[in-house]
Amino acid sequence: MKPKFQDKYRVESLRLPNRDYAANGWYFVTICTRDRTCFFGDVVAEKIQLSDIGQIAQQYWAEIPSHFEHTDIDTYIIMPNHVHGIVVIDRPPNVETRNFASLQSEETNKFGPLKPGSLQAVIHAYKASVTRWCRKNSQEHFSWQPRFYEHIIPADDSIDRIREYIANNPFKWEDDKDNPENLWM
Question: How far is CA 119 from CA 4, 65, 97, in A?
Answer without folding.
Answer: 27, 12, 28
